[in-house]
Specification:
It is a single chain. The chain is built from 18 helices and 15 strands. With 419 residues, the chain is of the alpha/beta class. The chain has a domain at 1-56. The radius of gyration is 28 Å and the shape is globular. The N and C termini lie far apart (77 Å).
């Protein structure tokens, strides 16, 4: 009886194989594309016919490459370029491998792969040294890619100008990250023109001077950018007077930038004109010269605001807290690293009831502030989170620290700020 059932299984398997063979290649590719990489390898090992089917490069287009294999060295990357099933990868992620692209053969293979892979949508080369790759071939072979991540890649001026000209001003590239590269000698007009057709731009920590940032922001009135990151640059000549003309902008990151104190009121007045802004990051930027009322008016219009270590004092903080109501958009607020010494406790507790998250780490809170946050917030909605610092609280009052650990709305961050 056992042999009989085995024979039936064999016959059924043969019949299924006959059926599969009758299907066309396009249909088989579509069917097998839903399998995981592991299952595809298993299917490929079942017979010669399916091995040929599974060798179709489109089947592997959505595969994520093994990081462990890539970290073995440049030999693994060379093997990738010559593996037929990886010829049409949609996403090429070689980030954080610390590779030094100086071998001419490797560079030639890399450029050839970029040129022949017409299916590439995303390329991530962050944290590799690309300084030796010829500028024009690199830019022209990346011009068809939608998203480029090239942070900290030691790109030279010629390479940056080529990327701005070929990719950013091209038809296909929409998202680009060139952060932590040196833009000191990049053509400012080319830089300003290159962002007009982009949707996401990250130029943080690129040594942009006041002239560069001014020219860049002037072009925003013609741009359709949704996300802009200029963190770590010099913006002393900017007052954001054109930024309200771009109503697509939803994320603006200006962390650790250098502002002109006399222009801060104009800057925040102009920010109020961006009606679709939902995330604003200003952490590490000095804002104590801003008018508290104008600052508050700009902040409460945004869903998520990071004001971590912005040198804000009681006046600024209290106006922001007072402006938070059930009708304002602000729901996520980071006020860590500022000066809460004289901030009204009742005002703080009232504002928290209208927030989903507030971070107040290393903010010079008094023991009375901590007691109120721990003991007077039992009726908060479950979704509301108060983020405090574990080390700061345990230093102030160990009993409050114990109660905070049991509080459903309090989250204790274990990051040590060297208190």
């Amino acid at each position: 009886m056992i042999h009989f059932y085995k024979r039936l299984n064999v016959v059924a398997a043969v019949n299924r194989m006959k059926f599969i063979v009758t299907l066309g290649m396009p249909l088989l590719v579509r069917i097998f594309s839903h399998l995981s990489a592991r299952d595809k390898k298993a299917v490929a090992s079942s017979c010669v016919f399916l091995w040929r089917v599974m060798s179709e490069s489109l089947l592997w287009a959505g595969v994520t490459l093994s990081r462990r294999r890539l970290e073995e060295g440049l030999g693994a990357v060379t093997e990738l370029f010559y593996t037929p099933r990886y010829a049409l990868l949609a996403c090429l992620n070689l980030s954080n491998l610390k590779y030094l692209f100086i071998d001419k053969t490797l560079i030639a293979d890399f450029l050839k792969y970029l040129k022949q892979n017409t299916n590439l949508e995303t390329v991530d080369l962050s944290n590799n040294d690309l300084s030796a790759i010829p500028a024009f071939p690199l830019a022209s072979n990346l011009a068809r890619v939608t998203s480029l991540e090239m942070s900290n890649t030691k790109l030279g001026t010629e390479q940056l100008n080529s990327l701005l000209g070929k990719c950013c001003r091209g038809r296909y590239t929409k998202n680009i990250n060139l952060s932590f590269n040196d833009f000191s000698y990049v053509n400012p007009d080319l830089l300003a023109e290159s962002i007009i057709s982009l949707e996401r731009v990250n130029l943080s920590y690129t040594d942009l001077t006041p002239m560069y940032t001014r020219r860049l922001l002037e072009s925003l009135k013609k741009a359709s950018i949704r996300e802009l990151d200029l963190s770590g640059n010099d913006m002393t000549s900017c007052n954001l007077d054109n930024i309200g003309l771009n109503q697509n902008l939803s994320i603006l990151k200006l962390s650790e930038v250098k502002f002109n104190p006399e222009k801060l009121d104009d800057i925040f007045t102009n920010m109020t004109l961006i009606h679709n802004l939902r995330e604003l990051c200003l952490n590490g930027s000095t804002l104590y010269d801003a008018n508290p009322i104008i600052l508050s008016d700009a902040v409460v219009r945004v869903e998520s605001v990071d004001l971590n270590f912005c040198w804000l004092y009681a006046d600024h903080i209290e106006f922001i807290l007072d402006g938070i109501t059930a009708d304002t958009r602000l729901r996520h607020l980071n006020l860590s690293g500022n000066h809460f010494e004289d901030v009204n406790i009742d005002l703080l507790l009232l504002a928290i009831t209208n927030l989903e998250q507030i971070k107040i780490e290393c903010a010079n809170l008094s023991e009375e502030h901590f007691e109120a946050l721990v003991n007077d917030t039992e009726e908060l909605a479950k979704r509301t989170k108060i983020v405090l610092n574990h080390f700061e609280l345990i230093t102030k009052n160990i009993e409050l620290h114990r109660l905070a650990k049991l509080h459903p709305n309090i989250e204790l961050n274990l990051q040590n700020f060297d208190l």
